């Protein structure tokens, strides 16, 4: 088991190094991907959901963490060509067995997902952020974490998400902080059921 983890680390690192200049499909900055990785490891999360795969950069970091916690990621992308690239990247990185990649419109898929989840990364269409949150929050376990990309309460991320920020901050059963080292990530921990 330990040998498998060491071999996988090597494979993922080699893949990330050799593809370092190829993430041009709205992929998150590395600082944000590392942040997601750290949150999953620290909390030993195992049931992850990502909305907005693109070509799979953040998924790779999430799945890499899940390979260490014994977890699995469901990730959703609506664009077929980016979905195909992502699936190819997952295979090359050696992470396919930790990822259930879905080609679908998240507007219709997400509300029907069964859950439960303990980690969520929301990074698809910004105007749907609140709908995604409302659909998934009840399926997030208490102690789970819902992260949202391109959101900050201090810097302007350019997406007009101020009302979403206020919405998150006012939720009684979530505690939200913001990480501005990359493109802005809202980190919302679920404190209680309601
Ligand atoms: C910012 S990119 C995701 C980047 C990715 N998380 C990464 O770091 O590599 C957003 C992606 O969400 C996808 N998307 C937008 N609307 C969607 C929808 N309704 N359902 C599924 N995917 C959607 C876009 O096609 C795009 O590839």
Description:
Helix 2 packs parallel to helix 3 (57-69). By secondary structure, this protein is α/β, with parallel strands linked by helices. It has helices at residues 2-18, 30-43, 57-69, 80-93, 106-109, 129-136, 162-169; strands at residues 47-51, 72-77, 99-103, 117-122, 140-149, 174-179, 185-190. The protein is built from 7 helices and 7 strands. Helix 4 links the parallel strand 2 (72-77) and strand 3 (99-103). The protein binds S-adenosylmethionine. S-adenosylmethionine binds at residues 26-28, 52, 54-58, 76-79, 82, 105-107, 123-125. This is Putative O-methyltransferase. InterPro entries: SAM-dependent_MTases_sf, SAM_O-MeTrfase.
Name its key features:
O-methyltransferase activity; binds S-adenosylmethionine; Rossmann fold; 7-stranded mixed sheet; 194 residues; methyltransferase; SAM_O-MeTrfase; globular; SAM-dependent_MTases_sf; 7 helices; alpha/beta
Structural class assignment: alpha/beta
- Secondary structure tally, helices: 7
Instruction: Name the overall outline.
Output: globular
Instruction: Write down the CATH topology.
Output: Rossmann fold
CATH class term: Alpha Beta
């Amino acid at each position: 088991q330990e040998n498998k983890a060491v071999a996988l680390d090597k494979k993922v690192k080699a893949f990330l190094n050799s593809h370092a200049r190829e993430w041009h499909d709205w992929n998150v900055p590395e600082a944000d991907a590392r942040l997601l990785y750290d949150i999953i490891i620290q909390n030993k999360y195992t049931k992850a959901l990502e909305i907005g795969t693109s070509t799979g950069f953040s998924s790779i970091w999430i799945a890499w963490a899940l390979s260490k916690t014994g977890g699995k990621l469901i990730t959703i992308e609506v664009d077929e060509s980016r979905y195909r690239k992502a699936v190819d990247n997952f295979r090359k990185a050696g992470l396919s067995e930790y990822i259930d990649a879905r080609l679908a419109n998240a507007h219709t898929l997400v509300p029907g997902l069964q859950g439960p989840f303990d980690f969520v990364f929301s990074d698809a269409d910004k105007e749907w952020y609140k709908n995604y949150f409302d659909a998934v929050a009840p399926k997030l376990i208490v102690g789970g974490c819902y992260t949202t990309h391109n959101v900050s309460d201090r810097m302007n991320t350019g997406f007009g998400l101020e009302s979403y920020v206020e919405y998150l901050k006012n939720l009684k059963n979530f505690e939200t902080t913001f990480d501005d080292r990359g493109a802005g990530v809202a980190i919302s921990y679920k404190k209680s059921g309601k």
